[in-house]
Every structure is written in C-alpha cells, then in structure tokens.
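Most newcomers find our protein records easier to grasp once they have seen one. Nothing more is needed to start thinking about how sequence determines fold. Here is such a record, shown just as it appears in the course material:
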Amino acid sequence: MTLILNLVWVLLGGFVMAVAWFLAGLLAALSLVGLPWARACFTIALFSLWPFGREAVPRQVLTGREDLGTGPLGLVGNVIWVLLFGLWLAIGHLTAAVACGVTIIGIPFAFQHVKLAGISLMPIGMAVVSADRLDRFAR
C-alpha cells in the first residue's frame, strides 16, 4: 500500500517539492557555512519524494541525548534557516496541501504536505527513519 501511496504522491506535488528541497540544498551548499543546511535539505528532499512508510523525528528522541543539531546551536540554525529557505518551502507545501485537500482522495496527501511544511520550518536536528524502525524503537 505504501508503494501505491508514494507513486500517487509523486504526481500530487511530491516531485515538485523534492526538487525545491534539492535546489535549496544546492544553494545552501554554495558556502561552507551552509553545509549543515544542505545535508538536511538533501535528506528531506528524499523524504519529500517518498514519504509514506517513513517518519521524520527529532534525533534527540532516537538517540536519547542532545547533540549539536538538537541543542541551542540547532535552534539558532533553524531560525536562520526559516529566514533564508524554510518559509518558502513551507508555503510550497501548504499550497500543495490545499490543492490536495480539495478532494477526499487527496486528504492523506494533504496531511503529508502539512507535516512536511512543519519540517520545513525546523529541519536541523531531524532524522528520517522507516516506520518499522520507529515502531521497534517505541517498544
């Protein structure tokens, strides 16, 4: 079922938003300072292309400890990110969510876009894991 959902997702805005994330990553990678954002962009670009069956969770939840991206520096990085790229990516995802939410069939895809819009605002410190791994971790 996740394969079918992901294939439909690609047609309903997933591909366009994955390209937007990839382009944001390329722009961030132009300077050495932007490399942490670029890495997050490329990870989320893949997640944005194929989201069903995977979840984005804070790394602190997975590891049980704070690291550079989940602490105060991660917060500063996310604030800078929102000002440079995050707001625009969030608007793109919200626009796609509205377009998908017009039909009953598109509602699950609209929810994915809303979830990705939230991630667009704070990508530093997030990890993308398979839903299976998350279920095993929760036990």
Q: What stands out?
A: The longest strand covers residues 54-58. Residues 97 and 110 are 4 Å apart (CA to CA).
